[in-house]
Amino acid sequence: MWCQNVSQFCQKLVRRRPLEPREGSESLLARCLNTLDLVALGVGNTLGAGVYILAGEVAKDKAGPAIIICFLVAALSSVLSGLCFAEFGARVPCSRSAYLYSYVSVGQLCAFITGWNLILSYVIAIASVARAWSSAFDSLTGNHISQGLQGTLSLYMPYFLAKYPDFFALGLVLLMTGVLVLGARESALVTKVFTGLNLLVLGFIILSGFIKGDLHNWQLTEQDYNLTASGPNGTYSLDHLGSGGFVPFGFDGILRGAATCFYGFIGFDVIATTGEEARNPQRSIPLGILTSLFICFLAYFGVSASLTLMVPYYQIDPESPLPQAFLHVGWAPASYVVAVGTLCALTSGLLGTMFAMSRVTYAMADDGLLFRRLARIHTRTHTPIVATLASGNLAAIMALLFEFSDLVDVMSIGTLFAYSLVVISVLVLRYQPDQHLQTNQSTEDKTETPEPEAGPLESVPKAGILKTLKSLCDPINTSPTLKSGRIVYGCALLLVLLLTALSLVLAQWPRRVFSGDPVCTTVAVLLLVLSVGVTVTIWRQPQGPTPPPFKVPALPVLPVLSIFVNVHLMMQMTSRAWAQFGIWNAIGFAIYFGYGIRHSLEDTDPQPPASNSQTLDKNIPGAESS
């Protein structure tokens, strides 16, 4: 009996949601967003404070002028994930982002983990951006706001909270929540205005950098350091500043910088949450994702190049890199232009992140994995009002009380983890048979007459094993079957384990691997060979007969490469960040096993539901459809 209970419990964890919308389901969200709206939403959500702050931090201590290579590596990693998001956005036009993509391909537990970690990333991002907005505005007023709050309220704050409660950040988040409640069209208009102003300011910064910059700052030598150190405040040493030249901190510095620069590309996935609000999601979502990533890369590349051309990288002020750079070249008034651009970028980023958070929360509640009342939709504005208000109030409280500057790595881990699951989902789903054929195939497998005995009992399993091994690299069928689909599932799981082990070896002992250490090099080569073999096995399996509107090219090579890059970037994070990530997921498991696993619609209603609508003027029963 207990074995049967364990089996049923495990089956609940891997329940998958149908790829097609359920029969009779119809979303109440308004389809009002065009491609330009999605591009503005993606660019605005990605080009936040990072474009004004991140370049200075990475260039000074991690990469030097080679920061442009760091952004290139980070952009390529994001593009690999973005292609997978684009295929899923065209294949599954629903407002559920990476959460639904995991649900339809790898199962309910992985989907919950994906959605839960996206919420973590969004909460940290919203609170961080709100506090950064407050800090930027406070600096324009001579820091009078922060000084007043610290003088009156800092003594009453516990040690584990921020130095003072930021009421300005609280009010900003609540204001943006109100904008989102008005409707998707209104919030898209606000996003387009602030994103346009931000791009104009970035264009001014890039042009100014190339006019006032000096190419010699990319070719610094030891003599340049000594000349700088001979000044009255010169305390620089060549060891601390790197080895000079364009790549002063070596290849390791580029990898560390790329892991940090990846934070600057977090946000394009907000486009995937607009599936039920885009007019033509199958075209707009792929085009919006790829266009926004390209625009963001150009902006990061241009700003980082301009910054390192204007100022020697070791003289960059990480707290205020661009205003100090303009001061260095004699253009002090330009710092006000930078301040305006910073506030516009923070505003559009804050609004986009809050939009994505409310839609993911709504999607999980709509499926029963979070509390169902969060899935209510306003009848007039057609927005998930309860999810928007709940997530906005939570983020506002966090922005009021907490300081999130040390949680950026945790946010990156959560986002990379979600991106990796989406890539795995694309890799798995492309090789699955059409869902309406799976039931018939299962019935045929069960009713198939057994083969007659042809010898000793040992010959049957032996023949089965040989047949299975042969089918791995030389499948008979030209269309995917349940068996080939299960082979891809197993290979994908094995591939993730192999790539994780390879990334761990390369992250912990990179010099020993590349210097020819017999043990480390042998282990790395063995893991690489096994990974290639598993990838070839997946490649040899038949793909689905119905191509999606947008396809990831070079499958399975690009998804495998994306998984490796994402995992390797995750390995660059600190142990403290991983511990905090584990605590958050422990809280999520408590919610899932305490509520979600029992209220999931995939468990309570095996028949196609009648409706997907939840409105403010009716109750939501437990067995109601998503």
Distinctive features:
membrane, amino-acid transport, transmembrane helix, mainly alpha, glycoprotein, 67% helix
Please explain how this structure is put together:
With 626 residues, this protein is an all-alpha fold. 67% of the residues lie in helices and 0% in strands. It has 25 helices and no strands. It has helices at residues 2-13, 35-46, 50-63, 67-91, 97-103, 108-140, 144-153, 167-182, 184-212, 222-229, 238-241, 250-261, 281-310, 321-328, 334-366, 385-401, 408-429, 435-447, 459-473, 482-508, 510-514, 518-539, 557-570, 575-599, 601-604. The longest helix is centred in the first third of the chain and has 33 residues, at 108-140. It is globular and about 75 Å long. The two termini are 32 Å apart. Mean pLDDT is 79; it is low at 229-238, 436-460 and 604-626.
- How many helical stretches? 25
Order of helices and strands: HHHHHHHHHHHHHHHHHHHHHHHHH
Biggest β-sheet strands, sense, barrel? none
Unreliable residue stretches: 229-238, 436-460, 604-626
Principal-axis shape: globular
Give the terminus-to-terminus CA distance: 32 Å
Mean pLDDT: 79
